[in-house]
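Before the break, one more example. Copy the sequence into your notebook; we will annotate it together after we see the structure.
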Amino acid sequence: MADMDPWKSGSRVRLDDDFLNGLKCFRNADWEGALELFRTADEHAQMDDIYQNRYTSFHGLVRVCMGDKNGVKLCRKAAVGEQSDVEVYYNLAMAEHKLGFRESAYMALRRGLKIDAGHPGLKRLQQEINLRKQHGLLPGMGRDSFLSRVFGKLFRGSRKTYPRKRE
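Here is what the structure looks like once it is written out:
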C-alpha cells in the first residue's frame, strides 16, 4: 500500500473549523475574533495533528498584530520542529519583520523558501527586505555606515517607501 501524503491528499486530517473561521476574521483584520478562534484551535488540537504548528503560528502572528511582542515566541515554537509547512515559516518571518528583528525574519524567510521557493508571500517579503537592504537613506553610503544609522533613526517612518519594480 502506498504512503498517503496528508499535505497533498488531505484525506487523513482536515483543518479545524475554529481555525478556518479564525482565518476569515484574520483576513478582515478582526484581531480579537481571530485570536479567540486561533487560541481555541491551538489548545484543542491533538498532539498527532499535522496542523498543530500552523495553529500555533497563526495564534502567535495575530498576537503580534495586536501589539503583543510575546506572540513571536509562539511562532518560533511552531517553527522549531516544522519541516514541511511553509505557512509556519511565513508567519514567523512576518512576525519577526513586524517587530523589527531583521536577521531573524531573514532566517525564517530563507528556511521557508527552502520548502517552497515559489511561495508568493515569502517572495514579496524577500523583495521588501532586499529593497531596504539595497537602498540606504543617504545616497552613496551603505546602510551600515554611522551617518546612515544616525539619520535613519532620526527620520524613521518619515520617508516614502520605494515603488515596486514591474517585471
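The chain has one domain: 14-134. The chain has a mean pLDDT of 82. Try to locate both features in your own notes.
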